[in-house]
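Morning!

This is the sequence you dropped in the shared folder:
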Amino acid sequence: PFLRLLEAQLQDQRREYEEEVEALKNQVEAMKEEMEKQQQAFLQTLQLSPEAQVEFGLQQEITRLTNENLDLKELLEKLEKNEKKLKKQLKIYMKKVQDFEASQAVVPAERRRHERNMQVAVQRKEKDFQGMLEYYKEDEPLLIRNLIT
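The structure's back. Tokens below.
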């Protein structure tokens, strides 16, 4: 069984290797064809007059820039779609955060007072405490009374 597993893995690797080699051969052939086309174009331009060579060069550059422009437009469209998707996700997450904050704000007032009283008690135990204290305006008399006592 172990040898069969190894043999199957070896065959899979060999198949992948052969496919990769075939793809590379096709790529080399395509490059050869492109190179031959460029050589033919180059030889033709050498036979042209200087003015025609300049015009041909300009046509080639225009073609190249047009293709590059189309590629950039395609990339821009992809980026815009991605931006819309991310904005939708951001809205969803912002809604979840707002819902969560709203649910936290509904905590009963007694529980909040109890938590603040505990915080005040803890702060009294710390002798060197320096800093700011956050409190609700409605609890100001309670806070003042606790600070005085």
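Headline: The chain has a mean pLDDT of 83.

More detail when I'm at my desk.
O.
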